[in-house]
Amino acid sequence: MPDGAKSKLPSSPAFHERGSDLDPVNWPAFRDLAHAMLDDALHHLLTIREQPVWRPQTPQVRAHFASALPRAPAELASVRREFLEFIQPYSVGNLHPRFMGWVHGGGTPVGLLAEMLAGGLNANLGGRDQAPIEVERQVTRWMAELFGFPKDASGVFVTGASMGNFIAVLAARTRILGQDSRAGGIGPAGSRLTAYASRAAHNCIARAMEMSGIGSDALRLIATDAAGRIDLKAAAAAIAADRHRGSKPFLLIGTAGTVDTGAIDDLAGLARMAVDEGLWLHVDGALGALGMMSPELAPKFAGIERAQSIAFDFHKWGQAPYDAGFVLVRDRQAHLETFSSPAAYLSREAGGLAAGSPWPCDFGPDLSRGFRALKVWFTLKTYGAAALGESMARTCRLAQRLAERIDAEAELERLAPAELNIVCFRYRGEPGDEINRDIVVELQESGVAAPSMTTIDGRLAIRAAIVNHRTREEDIDVLVESVLSLGRGRAGRRA
Ligand SMILES: *Cc1c(COP(=O)(O)O)cnc(C)c1O
Questions:
Q1: Pocket test for ligand 1, best of 102, 209, 287 (most atoms within 8 A of CB)
Q2: Backbone dihedral angles phi then psi of residue 459, each to the nearest 5 degrees
Q3: Which alpha helices (DSSP H) does 278-371 contain, by range?
Q4: What is the H or E stretch that residue 204 is in?
Q5: How far apart are CA 359 and CA 348, in angstroms?
């Protein structure tokens, strides 16, 4: 340690002035700073509405991250200041009530605390006999209850629905090809497999097919109807055509809330088709499935209880902090057969730390894993499923209000039905794509609101996804007024 660093802090020893371990020597000072850092996070949340939704990083901010590997210690207090100055103000902005881009959860103060406790515990949820795994198992049982799955359905926390969908594709693949395919690869039988999802399915489905070794060419993207739902007749025709040419259909994927417009496939219709055709039905419910917590929204998902597997995200509508994806599988045995391995160093015992099999590592590709379950457990216990469901229903009512306001404005045009909490629209004017792109970028850069963009029937749309539980009617009005005023400004400049 350089002498200079010591002399700067005569009264309180630096945290790095310690013996051989990494714990502070001066715990009282550390504790004060820890409390202050928790206050930083709470203050940020408390003042979020007065802040811009998003701030572009300045060149100075970007340059801050160019420094080399720190070899010498620094005061925790100074690293805290760096965080407050260079990181906290420049994140995506999804805490903010007028963040409406993509589909991002808003997080909660309870989630923040649970993350802190999980960090303190530093549990590894890969396996072994420990209460944290009981928490994950309890959340799994709660989800089986929510979705009407059997009591012994299996489930596992993952980063997000991308990984959940991937796990489901692998489970369906193992079921159709047999467990030997894990060692032998997909082989000639695997190269004949085909899967079905709508054109509106999330791109991670195609990537899951790629990563599974079956390939995304084997994913048939089926047309959608006017409401954005998979066309069941077209799906049946595609399955028949594939069988006719010698392919082997194995997997049908429904979406409960498409990423572009929030459309919900006819899940009951898909469930019937899956039974008739002998296919594994998987539901990508990343965005919408947790709507099952709302009695108002649940009927929209009728049929989901008959799926073989469901992937969904607590970090979106569930408002849990990132990341908290989940995959639920009806047939525990099929799930185990896809992932469990008899490695000697992971061998199980009847007692001691190696008891309590099966472990989470038997249900997915991860061995070491964090305690994601805790923030979801805290969230569900503290708020209760009813209040979480009500916050989801409220975002849908706000989306309805937005849709109504758009429909009432001659200068605005709605581009898709608003089934759930997503509204796609645009400002009328030419060239339309350019004007609307400019509006979205300006809205984001001004910090007033952050919708995103998508393309609907080849036309650029302003896409407002109301996911944040903090969003209110006044925020919807700010979005509408801002789009109108920016649109008028653009149109005027062009005239
Ligand atoms: C967000 C989303 C995904 C991907 O989920 P991640 O949590 O980002 O991995 C998949 N499908 C749909 C419909 C989504 O909205």
A1: 287
A2: -115, 140
A3: 332-339
A4: helix 203-211
A5: 9
Q: Are 316 and 288 in contact (CB under 8 A)?
A: no
> How confident is residue 299, by pLDDT bands cut at 50, 70 and 90?
very high
Residue linked to tokens 């015992």: 349
d(CA 253, CA 116): 36
Query: Are 220 and 194 within 8 A, CB to CB?
Result: yes
And the tokens for 244?
């006719």
The band of 342, judged by pLDDT with boundaries at 50, 70 and 90, is confident
Report d(CA 294, CA 291) in Å as an integer.
6
- What lies within 8 Å, CB to CB, of 109 at 6+ separation is 42, 45
Answer whether 325's CB lies under 8 Å from 369's CB. Answer: no
pLDDT digits (tens, 9 = 90+) for 326-341: 999 999 999 999 999 8
The answer to whether 204 touches 243, Cβ cutoff 8 Å, is no
Q: Are 234 and 223 in contact (CB under 8 A)?
A: yes
* Residue ranges in 280-431 assigned as alpha helix (H): 332-339, 372-408
The pLDDT, as a whole number, for residue 16 is 55
Element (H, E) at 454: strand 450-456
Q: Cα separation of 259 and 237, whole Å?
A: 25
Neighbours of 377 (CB within 10 A): 21
Residues with CB under 6 A from ligand 1: 103, 160-162, 202, 204, 255, 257, 259, 284, 286-287, 313, 325
pLDDT digits (tens, 9 = 90+) for 246-298: 999 999 999 999 999 999 999 999 999 999 999 999 999 999 999 999 999 99
Q: Are β-strands 219-222 and 193-198 bridged in parallel, bridged antiparallel, or unpaired?
A: parallel
CA dist 395 and 469 (Å) reads: 7
- The number of the ligand 1 atom at minimal distance from the alpha carbon of 255 is 13
The pTM score is 0.95
